[in-house]
Specification:
The protein has 199 residues and is mostly beta strands. Helix content is 12%, strand content 42%. It has one helix at residues 176-198; strands at residues 4-13, 15-23, 32-40, 51-58, 63-64, 70-73, 75-78, 83-87, 94-100, 104-111, 121-128, 146-150, 156-159. The termini are far apart. Residues 7-15 and 164-197 have low confidence and may be disordered.
């Protein structure tokens, strides 16, 4: 299977979010795959200090498998037809949902970025096969196409090449400030949702 991360670039969407595009043309004839997002708590206690929203999915001619085939673990909710939410309320928080591949897969990503202790929280994006095994990447000691450390400092995006060795893109330095603004807005939305649920 040949996949490559085509672009990771900041884009204006209400507040600014990060746009991620993955070339999935090699998967078109491969049947069902799974999009997999994780937000794992570095403190291992589930302190709930960080969140991720993933939205505006485009499958490049493919589509999500509605929604019988969704896995929600820990602080995960939503689906691919709207927004996927991840909160690090457990040590391990994961969302996965089946999809059929088109020529590309793109989505937008907004992250909070709060310090949680000496080990950062980690957001990760992977694609799983029909047996829920991760597709391979050239990431050192990782099977994620994209990882982001959330430690209160500058967001450290790591985009990894797919199994075909295509070079991974970088995020332009100037766009990281906009992501911090988006993360602050995301944190406010999370607080508002908790207040509404408690009422």
């Amino acid at each position: 299977m040949f996949l490559s991360l085509v672009s990771v670039a900041a884009l204006a969407v209400a507040a600014r979010a990060t746009s991620v595009t993955l070339n999935t043309s090699a998967l078109v004839a491969g049947g069902t795959y799974y999009v997999d997002f994780q937000l794992n708590d570095g403190s291992q206690v589930g302190n709930g200090n960080n969140a991720a929203a993933v939205f505006n999915f485009d499958f490049g001619g493919g589509g999500e498998v509605v929604p019988d085939d969704i896995g929600l673990i820990g602080g995960a909710s939503g689906d691919l037809s709207s927004t996927v939410w991840l909160n690090d309320t457990n040590p391990f928080n994961e969302f996965f949902q089946a999809f059929t591949a088109g020529s590309f897969l793109s989505f937008e990503l907004a992250l909070s970025n709060n310090f949680g202790g000496p080990v950062p929280d980690i957001f990760g994006f992977a694609i799983l096969d029909a047996n829920l095994f991760n597709l391979g990447t050239f990431a050192p000691a990782s099977d994620q196409f994209l990882t982001v450390e959330l430690n209160g400092g500058p967001l450290a995006f790591q985009a990894y090449a797919g199994v075909d060795g295509t070079p991974a893109p970088q995020i332009p330095e100037g766009d990281i400030t906009a992501l911090l603004v988006a993360a602050a807005l995301l944190a406010l939305v999370g607080v508002h949702r908790r207040v509404v649920r408690a009422a």
